[in-house]
Design a protein that fits this description.
single chain, Na+/H+ antiporter like fold, 2 strands, mainly alpha, two-stranded antiparallel sheet
């Protein structure tokens, strides 16, 4: 079969699987991401002549992952109300920083003792990666809840996603270049990433969105909004900034100004983002094969329990004035679902660092496997927690899911 036709056939099969999994997800209230990962793992078992039947070029995988990340981050930030952001963002930012510091400090130690990883940069990469959340993986199953807890989880995700993506990509640069990071170099890179990222988002927002505000076109505005998101990511990365932070800035900027038929424009980006999300999670399931070793699951399960304990401690430190009840804190602790951002980083790790002579193969493979395991664990735990949402949040705050 012609290679182009073969890839088209494989992609069509993946889309068909995505459609079927979405139907199953809606009917049985199972997270779609979990079904997509499982489908990818299942497809990875099909081989022909000793090679996987479903395989794609690395450039295709990387481009698809980044495109999905850009659109999903933009849609999430653009649909957010800045008024709500102002009310709880300070707590969310404080919590995100505390949680990340505790993860890096204590989860690194636990990972070292449980899995014997001694490479400092890889440990930092793994623990910083786990400091991000994506409540959209399971929270939509709850319906339109009135609880402030759900609002906090959404804001937390918007704030911690750029940080969670920023640090691993900086550390990957160090690993690829085989350089030892020094504190002044790290601070310089962080400053550049943030300044260039935010600047690119504001710049593209002013130029493109202000123009669209005054020159709306039913045929071209949707294309313009999607192109603006991609331009923002590309500009920020070329300037040495963080593309995810830039897209988040653009999304918040676009969500705060008036645009004709704004909801229709963002609905289209959501649809495209969902299509790419299907590709990303199936590809993650295809590429990464978890070890068939009971010891791995015992150790990784123990590490995940430590991870949740650290998250709860971070909540207790942040909310010492008891803004939330203990039950609400437990609910937020258990809803630490990982999403497309973690999947993209995992794909980037596989494509960029696997086979690199500067990176210890065993340590790298271990954190890739652990990242996928945590992705699965977090979605499963979050889903089970929602079954008891009325206990944690109160019956008045838990409507019947649509």
């Amino acid at each position: 079969m012609d290679s182009a036709l073969l890839y088209l056939t494989l992609i069509t099969i993946i889309f068909l699987i995505g459609l079927i999994s979405s139907i199953i997800s809606n009917k049985f209230k199972i997270p779609n991401l979990l079904l997509l990962l499982g489908a990818g793992m299942l497809l990875g078992l099909f081989t022909q002549g000793g090679t996987k039947l479903f395989s794609f070029p690395k450039d295709f995988i990387s481009s698809t992952a980044i495109l999905a990340l850009v659109l999903i981050v933009f849609s999430g930030a653009a649909g957010f109300k800045l008024k709500q952001f102002d009310q709880i963002s300070s707590h969310a930012l404080k919590y995100s920083l505390i949680w990340m510091v505790l993860n890096i400090a204590f989860l690194s130690i636990a990972t070292y003792y449980l899995f014997g990883i001694t490479h400092v940069i890889i440990l930092l990469l793994f623990t910083s990666l786990l400091s991000g959340t994506s409540p959209d993986a399971v929270i939509p199953m709850l319906g339109k809840s009135k609880s402030p807890v759900v609002g906090f989880l959404e804001v937390e995700s918007i704030i911690n996603t750029p940080l969670m993506v920023l640090i691993p990509f900086i550390l990957m640069d160090f690993l690829v270049n085989a350089s030892t990071p020094e504190l002044p170099v790290i601070l310089k890179l962080f400053t550049l990433k943030f300044v260039a990222g935010i600047g690119a988002g504001i710049l593209i927002g002013i130029i493109v969105l202000k123009y669209m505000k005054n020159h709306y076109s039913s045929n071209l505005s949707t294309l313009g909004i999607l192109t603006a998101a991609l331009m923002t990511y590309i500009l920020a990365e070329n300037l040495g900034g963080n593309g995810v932070l830039a897209v988040t800035t653009l999304g918040l900027f676009s969500g705060s100004i008036y645009l004709k038929e704004k909801e229709r424009l963002f609905d289209f980006s959501n649809i495209l983002g969902n299509i790419l999300e299907i590709l990303v999670f199936v590809l993650v399931g295809l590429i990464i094969v978890l070890p068939l070793n009971i010891t791995f699951y015992i150790k990784s399960g123990s590490l995940f329990a430590i991870f949740l304990l650290i998250r709860f401690i971070a909540f207790k430190i942040t909310f010492r004035n008891k803004e939330y009840t203990k039950k609400q804190l437990v609910f937020m602790t258990l809803n630490a679902s990982k999403g497309v951002a973690v999947a993209v980083v995992v794909l980037s790790l596989s494509g960029t660092l696997v086979g690199n002579p500067n990176v210890p193969a065993h340590a790298l493979n271990t954190i890739i496997n652990l990242s996928l395991a945590f992705l699965l664990y977090s979605i499963i735990v979050g889903t089970l927690t929602l079954k008891f949402a009325s206990y944690f949040l109160g019956k008045d705050n838990v409507p019947t899911p649509e």
